[in-house]
Amino acid sequence: MTLQRWGVLGAGAWGTALAVAALRAGREARLWAHRPEIAALIAALHENPDYLPGITLDSRIGASADLASMRDCDALLLAVPAQHLREVSERLVPIWPQGRPVVICAKGIEQSSGLTMTALLARTLPGVPVAVLSGPTFAGEVAADLPTAATVAATDAALGQAIVEALAAPRFRLYWSGDVTGVELGGAIKNVLAIACGIVIGRRLGDNARAALIARGLAEMMRFAVPRGAKPETLMGLSGLGDLVLTCSGRQSRNLSLGIALGEGKSLADYQAGRRSVAEGIWTASVLRAQAEAAGIDMPIATAVDDILNRGAAIETAIGALLSRPFRAEG
């Protein structure tokens, strides 16, 4: 399988960083931007000042707002926000040949349908080979060639290995996995938990509380994902625990930053006003809570985040509810 020409759909920070990583691995890379002005800026300045300022882009990274420009690529990296993946994938139908792979690089669950990203693409792009790339990956650090490791998951082992061989580099280490469910759910759930960690930081509840929340959040992730087929070792790996620790600790995390702002007293509307970046946990929280309740799975942290974001709960009330839960055996 020859994977030399890569198209990256989504010219935000992560998509731009992936194009840089692909070029660094010796591949060709071109970006598709939803907004024509972003494509024009990248072409003119060799920089993405709106989403990844300060990173000089190689002139060989092309940028276009025409989706048809991706037609002759060998593979696609789908770095559009999770809630927009359906629309973009439907637009790919007349353009993208069935035999060529796409790699999902978004972390989330579609709010309107409750579908994971791979389940969504199975409906919109049937017959197209699909993989998932996920892990502890801040875009700015990837673009700056700081050491990073992530996971590529595919049910077809040969496809997963081919993607790793095409995109990996000494400072962008990729590992392949057959556990698509575990890799997807780990990446989606950690966004919700990061908002909770941010609230802890914003409320100045201390590092003990943040560490406890990460550990108990991991337990919630396991309770939700393992019955759906995820492997525990995947959730303890890069795309689960690794990504959870990063996004609950590093202030480059959009979900953590949102939680901090909420904890400091800002409203969700005020935080979102004028922001271009997306905190996927806002949408994942409600669908995660609904699916957990339908399955009888106890996820108090995710429920508290949904209460705060979507049900008007006061932060102090949600924290009080968590702290007043009955004492029990750890597990």
Show the helix and strand layout.
Elements: E1 5-9, H1 13-24, E2 28-32, H2 36-45, E3 62-64, E4 75-78, H3 85-92, E5 102-104, H4 117-124, E6 130-134, H5 139-143, E7 148-153, H6 157-167, E8 172-177, H7 180-202, H8 207-225, H9 232-235, H10 238-247, H11 254-263, H12 268-272, H13 281-295, H14 300-310, H15 315-323
Helix pairs in contact: 3-4, 7-8, 7-10, 7-11, 7-13, 7-14, 13-14, 14-15
Binding site for sn-glycerol 3-phosphate: 107, 135, 137, 190, 243, 253-255
GO cellular component, one term: cytosol
Domain Glycerol-3-phosphate dehydrogenase NAD-dependent N-terminal: 8-158
What this model shows, in words?
The structure is a single chain. With 331 residues, this protein is of the alpha/beta class. It has 2 domains: 5-178, NAD(P)-binding Rossmann-like Domain (Rossmann fold, 3-Layer(aba) Sandwich), CATH 3.40.50; 187-323, N-(1-d-carboxylethyl)-l-norvaline Dehydrogenase, domain 2. Helix content is 48%, strand content 11%. The protein is built from 15 helices and 8 strands. Strands 3-2-1-4-5-6-7-8 form an 8-stranded mixed sheet, sandwiched between helices. The protein is globular. The chain starts with a strand and ends in an 8-residue tail after the last helix.
Spatial ordering of strands, largest sheet: 3-2-1-4-5-6-7-8
- What share of residues are in beta strands? 5-15%
Using the coordinates shown, work out and report the CATH topology of the largest domain. Rossmann fold
SSE arrangement, N to C? EHEHEEHEHEHEHEHHHHHHHHH
Unreliable spans = none
Number of helices: 15
Task: Please state the CA-atom Rg, rounded to the nearest Å.
Answer: 19 Å
Could you say which structural class the secondary elements and strand pairing correspond to? Answer: alpha/beta
Proportion of residues in helical segments: 40-55%
CATH C-level class of the largest domain is Alpha Beta
CATH homologous superfamily annotation of the largest domain: NAD(P)-binding Rossmann-like Domain
Under the CATH scheme, which architecture of the largest domain would be assigned?
Answer: 3-Layer(aba) Sandwich
Total number of distinct structural domains: 2
| Structural shape | globular
Number of strands: 8
Q: What's the overall average pLDDT, rounded?
A: 96
